[in-house]
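Q: What residues go here?
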């Protein structure tokens, strides 16, 4: 028996009310950025702009790092998604203010009471940029590929399809997705960029070619060009008329074009905005805010939901196979100092393994409080004594721990260098190993690492299962257990929001108690925009949307 879409939406409204953090931390460093005429406000505290949107113009955007590609289903970094999200739509959308799941390519849906069957009723007026129509067969082709051959290249998307059995084509515009076990997270997953729906031809194309630009979507923009390590150009899609109800602009995008350029140096990005070389820039660091605002611009910020930036330990290798050593690392980190020293007011110190904007977040700040004396005590008790150089030793071995990372976020190097100093103060040598994303994956597969530095964005607490289950990504390399694994599996099979929230809380507590992650800080998007730029918005996952963006014409 299936429930109606209205009942399901009611359930998700309850979910939003009961699970979302007290506030979504959607704040701007200066006012004037929210624009009700052109799209959802990007700041809960900004003064709404009542100007009328002006179509036309090119928005020049400076990216803080190189995208890994432009395929919505394969990419994971923010800079990649800034481009890829504009090219493709999803079956549903998620309201960033409430967490509610709302229609997009699907006008409605039915979900079975046992959470194994999801039927979507598709719009009949959607076309891809190559002119082909959206049909139930298209949805099936996308999901079959992600659950099959494409899954290795799109691990996050594939994780959303765990237990996937089949997709049935009921008629041209009705499709049913079937799982072999309850899957409470799937409806929210259909709102993500990872499960964006691409054309039939794209669904069967070579994954590497897709990353480099062979992508056809139904989004408000079309890819004009993409050059690895340099940037991309996207242009307005003529005739676009199927935006989600989250967007106030229900027609074509206002901008003619967006030019994305890779500019790794934050000061150069801010200077480019101030000198009118760019209209918007990513990853604004604290030292650059005054320059952006001094030029009449503003800084838009929003915290990413999902797993915070963490050091996730490999618990099968010494010395991190000792829980006391892992706990010592947790309390030796001064998270507030990380934020105050090398980040900005836009960022928050981690208070759990989940960010505070994630449905199901639980405040565990007491367990993660900075306590150098406790860290010293734990390490003393574990038999590690300080050597003449201040680094602890045991049985002739130094207390040295490496961290594998890629500089996809501009502030990562500075954060890790400060964490390195903090850990050295208690006798731990943190060795930084910067790798390319490809080399990172090889190291993760081999297990040749002590800790792995990363974050994962998702506005659903099931991200914990993806990252921490022994049957999931399992960066910890841990064996199956009878505590955390059952909690993560049970929340996936629980439809009641309050009951699911309780399980998620227990899972977070277990991860922190066993120090299966050393949370550092919550990633926040910090976007500088010129004074004449309006309507740049964040989605529920804190990724940028440009459908409603516009530039005042001189």
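A:
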């Amino acid at each position: 028996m299936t429930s109606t879409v209205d009942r399901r939406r009611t359930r998700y409204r309850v979910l939003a009310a009961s699970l979302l953090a007290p506030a979504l931390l959607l704040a701007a460093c200066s006012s004037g950025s929210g624009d009700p005429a052109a799209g959802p406000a990007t700041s809960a505290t900004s003064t709404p702009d009542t100007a009328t949107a002006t179509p036309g113009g090119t928005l020049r955007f400076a990216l803080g790092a190189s995208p890994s590609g432009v395929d919505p289903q394969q990419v994971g970094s923010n800079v990649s998604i800034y481009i890829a999200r504009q090219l493709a739509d999803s079956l549903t959308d998620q309201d960033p203010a409430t967490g509610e799941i709302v229609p997009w390519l699907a006008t409605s849906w039915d979900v079975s009471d046992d959470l194994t069957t999801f039927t979507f009723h598709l719009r009949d007026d959607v076309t891809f940029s190559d002119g082909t129509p959206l049909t139930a067969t298209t949805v099936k082709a996308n999901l079959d590929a992600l659950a099959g051959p494409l899954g290795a290249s799109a691990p996050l998307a594939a994780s959303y399809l765990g237990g996937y059995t089949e997709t049935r084509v009921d008629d041209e515009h009705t499709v049913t997705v079937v799982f072999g076990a309850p899957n409470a997270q799937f409806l929210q997953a259909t709102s993500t960029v990872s499960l964006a729906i691409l054309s039939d031809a794209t669904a069967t194309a070579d994954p590497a070619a897709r990353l480099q630009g062979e992508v056809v979507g139904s989004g408000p923009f079309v890819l004009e060009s993409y050059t690895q390590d340099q940037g991309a150009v996207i242009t307005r899609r003529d005739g676009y008329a199927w935006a989600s109800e989250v967007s106030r602009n229900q027609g074509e995008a206002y901008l003619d074009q967006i030019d994305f350029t890779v500019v790794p140096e934050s000061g150069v990005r801010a200077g480019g905005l101030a000198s009118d070389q760019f209209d918007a820039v990513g990853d604004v660091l604290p030292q650059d805010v005054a320059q952006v605002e001094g030029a009449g611009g503003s800084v838009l910020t929003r915290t990413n939901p999902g797993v915070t930036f963490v050091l996730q330990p490999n618990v099968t290798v010494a010395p991190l196979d000792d829980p006391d050593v892992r706990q010592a690392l947790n309390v030796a980190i001064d998270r507030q100092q990380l934020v105050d020293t090398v980040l900005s007011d836009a960022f928050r110190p981690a208070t759990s393994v989940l960010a505070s904007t994630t449905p199901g977040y639980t405040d565990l700040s007491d367990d993660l409080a900075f306590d150098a004396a406790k860290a010293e005590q734990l390490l003393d008790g574990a038999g590690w004594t300080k050597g003449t150089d201040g680094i602890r030793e045991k049985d002739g071995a130094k207390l040295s721990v490496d961290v594998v990372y890629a500089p996809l976020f501009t502030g990562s190097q500075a954060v890790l260098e400060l964490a390195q100093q903090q850990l050295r103060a208690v006798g731990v040598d943190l060795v930084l190993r910067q790798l390319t994303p490809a080399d990172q994956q090889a190291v993760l597969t081999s297990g040749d690492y002590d800790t792995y530095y990363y974050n994962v964005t998702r506005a659903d607490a099931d991200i914990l299962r993806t990252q921490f289950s022994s049957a999931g990504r399992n960066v910890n390399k841990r064996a199956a257990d009878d505590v955390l694994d059952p909690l993560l599996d049970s929340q996936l099979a629980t439809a009641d929001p309050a009951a699911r929230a309780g399980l998620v809380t227990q899972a977070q507590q277990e991860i922190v108690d066993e120090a299966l992650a050393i949370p550092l800080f919550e990633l926040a998007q910090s976007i500088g925009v010129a004074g004449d730029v309006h309507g740049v918005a964040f989605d529920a996952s804190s990724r940028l949307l440009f459908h409603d963006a516009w530039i005042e014409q001189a």
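A: Context that may help when evaluating the design: Confidence is low (pLDDT under 50) at residues 1-48. Residues 497-513 form the longest helix (17 residues).
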